[in-house]
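Section 3.1 - Work completed
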Amino acid sequence: MKYIYNIFFASLLLLLACEDPYNDASGPGDYVDPDKDYQPTELDNWLYSNFTSPYNIEVKYRWDASELNLYKTLVPPVPSKVQEVMEVASQVWIKPYVELAGAGFIKEYCPKQFMLVGSPEYNFDGTIKLGTAEGGRKVVLYVVNDFLKTDQFSVKQLIHTIEHEFAHILHQSIMYPAEYKELTPGEYTANWNMVSLAEARARGFITSYAMSSPDEDFVEMISIMLIEGKEGYEAIIECETTAASRQILKEKEQLVVKYFIENYDIDFYTLQAKVQESIKAIAPGNGGGGGETPEPVADVWGFDKTYQTLNYDFSTLPQPADFVARYNYDNQVLHNNNYALDYNFKLLYSFEGELTLRLFYYTVNSAEREYYTANFRFSAVRNDNGTLTLYYAGSDDNGVYLQEELKATGILSFFANRTFNTDWVESCDGELYVGLFPVDSPQKYAIATLGN
């Protein structure tokens, strides 16, 4: 069985050999020839010594597109990023398990191959894959080229992917308690990507993707509890749940703890503490470059800065109510016209002084789904007082259709012809996000993660 984890954290692979409207992956960068007769490099020797020899894990980074989805445009990994990624995997994933269960545990249950890919794999619905696991043997890790070892968000994203996929391997070997499926039996849905993170947690799920099936619910609980640590996890369920959903999540937590001790003789809370300790040792900060005090947003986000893109996602980010209402309004307008608005979109620097709002939408109630991208352009002006003004400058044909014919303007009007303060926002669970605060109504802001 093939498990697929994406930024919300997972979505089903769509095997379509047509145009991929959401895939904007760039060229291959540092291409490494897959010649089987190559002479081992220093990196090859390091991977062999740290993974292949002790645990029988092959780490494959030399490009072999035949092992990946031939219907997608993917980018090879940059070799300089490979060791950083695998160092974190070793310290944060393998080491805690070895300390608690021994090297034999990893040898028995770990996947036998990690394959690294530089870019994400874009799905037609706008979601991306961060990782896949096939039959408990092979794990593919994407977005290697964007990995930042000193950035805690980047480290957590990587470990979330690995822990998610490894948890699938564990429950394929020994099934989790049957009563787990009975805690929220009527809430699972194939339309999980239309459920905001806030709504998911109010219904007893740790993420939106956890609503897709009991199996995904179980492994999402494991992975989130591990990457957030006890303190971070407790903060989530205290500030983002109702009394009823908090009780459900506590019951799910106890079944996870019971599963690990009874089946693998692992104290989950000790494992959780060790994983959190390792994350903080590698990346002490939680945003903006890895320090306790992040750099100003304006110093890291811009056309020629470390990051060019703000990623908005209603399934993974705890957006304020006003911004959720804008999305819901636009989505309802589109549904009334046989379309659906994807739950994630981007605000990116397309040129110096120009930002593009990129929305994704697709047909519903049609024999064959059709996918569209709408681009809205803004002149972006940094003012002397540090604020950012976005002057609406036009759109492509799809943008005109959404704006003028369907009147789906809730999200567009948030950005158009307004001035913003940009700053870091700390959520109630301690995570840092980039916030855009309209000067005319700063309480009605929006949050995003940084990306390229």
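Second construct:
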Amino acid sequence: MLQAGIIPVTPFQQNCTILFDMDTKEGVVIDPGGDVDTIIDTAKNNGITLKAIWITHGHIDHAGGAKELKEALGLEIIGPHKDDLPILQAIESRADMFGMAGKVKNVVPDRWLEDGDTVSFGDHEFEVYHTPGHAPGHVIYFNRKQNFAHLGDVLFHGSIGRTDLPGGNERQLLESIRDKVLPLGDSVGFLCGHGPGSQIGEERRTNPFLRGL
């Protein structure tokens, strides 16, 4: 059974997510934006062996701790899409304005992801969808077998990702939601980069930003 735990990290209280198998206690960490010692301690205290780092997009609060975590545990960094390379290479230069100087590092993943790729750990396979708009190289992860998705900062409970950051594009974001997220199905539950998770159908019905899609 696939399980998930959320660790709020950085001043942004970003949802660093640990996905793990309840039986084997093997898992992956999604978007380790910072507070790496806390991430490592949480995994250790719960008996979880981390196998890889998955990134949804390159913003500082999602990818800022990835290199440090890789160096600490020897993990491969997977994702996002290559269009986020400029953002990933600017993490350190943006750290001062967010009070994170010296706490985050630029990073280049070991494997870029493309629309249609799959990633997995143990018996848990996730489909990858390229969903630009919030960030040019944003990707989401969908486990069809368990009807679960991690949507990063594309769709939230009652909101959508902001598009006023470098590389953001509102039209692209809404197209990504319309063409990639909503077709996953109303019964799909999801976690996201900030705040509580939800179901796609609930957001289709009640999210004011999705009216007209």
